[in-house]
Fold these 3 entries.
Entry 1:
Amino acid sequence: MTTQQKIDTLFELYTTYGHLDYGEGVTQLMHMVQAAKLAHKEGYEEEVILAAFFHDIGHFLEEGEEMGIYGKHDHDRMGGEYLVSLGFTEKMAKLVASHVAAKRYLTYKIPGYYEQLSDASKKTLGFQGGPMEAAAAKAFEEDPLFELYLKMRYWDDLAKETDQAVVPEDVQWMKEMGTRFLQQQAAE
């Protein structure tokens, strides 16, 4: 599959499912564009911006156990694996696959974090195993990407603004960035 075919396949998922709401008052596409814009605003490199954009791509995949209107139970892991299958980096896959673990970590570690979650995030936390246990939290803290995992989670939490519509230029920006990134990976 060519880089263009991979990008077309990937973005066809957004065309097909991006309009769906998942209990947050925003569409999937609105949520993921907002997360990417937050990463960009903070000055992160394209790999991290793309991970922020793709972090919920697993909700669009056909396999996986449903959490009612809240999407797929294992969407984080499935999304990471899907991105690797298209040629994206392991780092990006880990960032995508970490945002649920980061929520579990933060609800364990930070008093009051749970109360800050949206109603939908509170509901999905139950499906996702609830707060981490101490041993898992310690191991999570030792991961070299730990700080970025937490960033991904915070962007996920913040990317639920109902008044930020997606414009075609937002999607084109992500497509171009994804294409450029995959081309760079293929050249290395």
Entry 2:
Amino acid sequence: MTGTRDWSGPLAREAMAYVLAGGRGSRLMELTDRRAKPAVFFGGKTRIIDFALSNALNSGIRRIGVATQYKAHSLIRHLQRGWSFFRPERNESFDILPASQRGGDERWYAGTADAVYQNIDIIESYGPRYLVILAGDHIYKMDYEPMLRDHVERRADVTVGVIEVPRQAARSFGVMQVDADDRIVEFLEKPKDPPGLPGRPEVALASMGIYVFEVSFLFDQLRRDAADPQSGHDFGGDIIPYIVRNGKAIAHRFERSCVRSAEERVAYWRDVGTVDAYWEANIDLTAVVPQLDLYDRSWPIWTHAEITPPAKFVHDEAGRRGEAISSLVSGNCIVSGASVRRSLLFTGVHARSYSRIEESVILPDVTIGRHARLKKVVVDRGVTIPEGLVVGEDPELDATRFRRTEKGVCLITQAMIDRLAG
């Protein structure tokens, strides 16, 4: 059991954030063929990982480590370009920690807990009192300071960030049962039949992949776990269930520390782990009053700020009018006699004359040819859409050419386009 201490200032000053960003995210299909899930583009100019990192920075945490593994080059390049402003002379640090077979037995990170265990020496060198473990692949705004205070006040061994989700959707999360004081009494990792809440059987309490530990206690647990040949060396599968059985694990509800502007009415958190969920979360931003406010200057989402010219709209004649309605259009986009509706255009998209784009997410540096019609698509980075291509009007044809989801979203990559020409 960890003890308490006297404190008056922000606990974030004594904490280090450790972001687990090594996952592929295979349910995003071809979007993660060339990049890890945390490096996938989101919201017009950011990457998914920017949300966890921005939350840490805005919470006052100035020591951050990011553990990478799967196809990490795109992610590492983004981190180097966008997150290199931390200064050691201000007691700040930002470490990128690729799986580098540091354990002596030439193995990669065996699990999420092992990804921390292999870097104990680096964490110790900074001397943090608390470690905030974060998943690098969720979209949300959260102040971690209340969770840190909750951890200390409750004298917890681990505090787990939790959120209510529909019970059937909880099968891809860690699910827990709690008592009246939010002490975790059972923790199940990705159960096939998740337990519902008392009196609310269709809702489950799911882990957000956010954990707070006192460092000395965590290191003891990691060393114990590393010595267990039967362990999967995973937080959700091994570390947390062990503490639930043998210590004190507390659930911290997201609503207590969710950051919301005056325009945000719900506690917004999304796992954009499927193509459908990714499309929906991006398209959500085109609403008049979106559930997630990216314009909240009191809680900015930091990222690599590219130097680009403004977006440009040209031509104004019937059938050839450069326009965008209920859409987000990023820098260096040229909408040249094209119509864009309820869509999101990332940096450097060029839409040629007479093309129509509707309910679509277009990643950076895409060129859309004349007379093309795209509806309900996600177009990967750098794709050239041929002149006259129509997607989103014939479901059976779309399914033979592109990756079409159950909800009718088509994912388009350059390889798929190239096969059309072949």
Entry 3:
Amino acid sequence: MASTLEDRYEKLEKVGEGTYGKVYRAEDRENGDMCALKQCKIELEEEGIPSTALREIALLKELHHPNIVHLRDVEHSGGRLHLVFEWVDRDLKRYMDKLRRKPVLEMMDIKLVKSYMYQLVRGMDFCHRRGIMHRDLKPQNLLVSKDGVLKIADFGLSRAFMIPVRAYTHEVVTLWYRAPEILLGQKAYAPAVDMWSVGAIFAEMVNRHPLWPADCEFDELARIFRTLGTPTETTWPGVSKLPDWNDSFGSWPRKPLHKVCPRLDANGLDLLAKLLAYDPAKRLTARDAMAHPWFDDLDKASV
């Protein structure tokens, strides 16, 4: 048997690079299986291993589910940390980018959107029921196989939450998928932040482009408000008391959602509206999303 993971797994190509390290497609020399080899950057910490990597390892060891990427192996040696995951063909962003590059306009089939959405909320329900928020849901962190399986990946920003919810870091979730309560400076938040991200990803799959591709937090809020209307104390009690609320946001009316996502039927629009509810307390949970009528015609046993 090979002595180290670097000996056992042959790097074939680099497939990604992020804040916390590089990811390679690799082959297991022992059985020929393809896998994803994540090489984490080692920060200068007393423990020697980045807290983000330790968090990801601890969480993934707890999460065994068909819609969550499987952690196969871990090794820390020679000043490096390697995580070996099951190999999945591509991520959702790359798949959608491929559609966008086609010369003739091609949209994602609504049946496929429905399948991916159900798998996503099913995976998030599994996480949330175990006290884990992802906090960085975006198309790049959703892996999709050629046979239609979706797996949630990259738990580097995740953490276990407690009831009552505590104050967490402000800088979580990629800007385009960031919940408005985080954008407005709320310190204590709950799994509802993940469900906002799910809603933004839902709209992006349907429309073939991001819903709110902003370049800063203020622009992100402005784009959200121009779509969903500027929140008020009636629609979101306590919003004007949040740290980063600004009366200069303006008063925007809410757009009809059928104009925002014209391909969705009435049930699809209802699901989207409930995922993008301003008030986190009223936002649809993953468990309730699984039971939404939009999924009634989906063969759930086959996804």
